[in-house]
């Protein structure tokens, strides 16, 4: 079973409270999602492999560490995942970015894929699939299914708020995928929204409602 980690650093908890507030407007919501994503990237990248490199400091020759291993691609699930990309790129600026478009049918809560565009070498990259919300888990599972069909095998899923229901189905469907969230909330309501949650992440990020 992959790792499940709640990244509950005090700065992240504080910032999450800001965006959970229904009075938080689009500008601040966008800025704070970006900041949380950057802080999470620090922890999500903790197990990146290192290798020795020989360098010359102004004082002496020295063996130091440099990143090795697979290169990263960030894969936002559209739309709301877009809000997390720039924050992660601040820490991993050379990452490539692939996009997968998914929307949830409001009646059935079933996801539909409408867009898929990846860097050519996703099979050899470490992928960070990002979406602020893991609710029923349908969107994350379908996005990861699509990535695996195209050869991806090294996948971490990063969200801001997760429902226990979504974590369970995602772990069952993709036990090899590590899941990172800033908060594990209480439950899903009858409309499939996370409680207490932060509402519709896409609408809040883009001001569409
Ligand atoms: C939201 C969210 C996730 C999905 C989570 O997207 O950003 O992608 O719902 O729900 P699930 O776990 O039950 O699948 P939405 O479908 O509202 O699209 P949007 O980002 O374009 O608003
Ligand atoms: N998608 C959202 O944007 N918010 C939720 O609470 C659930 C799904």
From TrEMBL:
Enzyme class, broadest EC rank: transferase
GO MF annotations, alphabetized: uracil phosphoribosyltransferase activity
Catalyzed reactions per annotation: UMP + diphosphate = 5-phospho-alpha-D-ribose 1-diphosphate + uracil
Record Pfam families: UPRTase
EC annotation from Swiss-Prot or TrEMBL: 2.4.2.9
Co-factor requirement: Mg(2+)
Binding positions for 5-phospho-alpha-D-ribose 1-diphosphate per the UniProt entry: 79, 104, 131-139, 200
Swiss-Prot/TrEMBL keywords: Allosteric enzyme, Glycosyltransferase, GTP-binding, Magnesium, Nucleotide-binding, Transferase
HAMAP family named among the record's database cross-references: Upp_B
Name of the protein described by the UniProt record: Uracil phosphoribosyltransferase
Annotated organism of origin: Enterococcus alishanensis
């Amino acid at each position: 079973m992959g790792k499940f980690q709640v990244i509950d650093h005090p700065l992240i908890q504080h910032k999450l409270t800001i965006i959970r507030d229904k009075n938080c407007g689009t500008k601040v919501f966008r800025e704070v999602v970006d900041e949380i994503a950057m802080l999470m990237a620090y922890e999500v990248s903790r197990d990146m492999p290192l290798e020795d490199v020989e360098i010359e400091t102004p004082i002496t020759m020295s063996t130091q560490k440099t990143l090795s291993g697979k290169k990263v691609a960030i894969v936002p699930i559209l739309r709301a995942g877009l809000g997390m990309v720039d924050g992660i790129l601040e820490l991993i600026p050379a990452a490539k970015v692939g996009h997968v478009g998914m929307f949830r049918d409001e009646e059935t809560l079933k996801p539909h894929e409408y867009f898929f565009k990846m860097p050519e070498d996703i099979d050899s990259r470490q992928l960070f699939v990002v979406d602020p919300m893991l609710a029923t888990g349908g969107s994350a599972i379908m996005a990861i299914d699509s990535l695996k069909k195209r050869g991806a095998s090294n996948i971490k899923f990063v969200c801001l708020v997760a429902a226990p229901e979504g974590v369970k189905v995602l772990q069952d469907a993709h036990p090899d995928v590590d899941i990172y969230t800033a908060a594990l909330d209480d439950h899903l309501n009858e409309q499939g929204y996370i409680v207490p949650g932060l509402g519709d992440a896409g609408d809040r990020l883009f001001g569409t409602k």
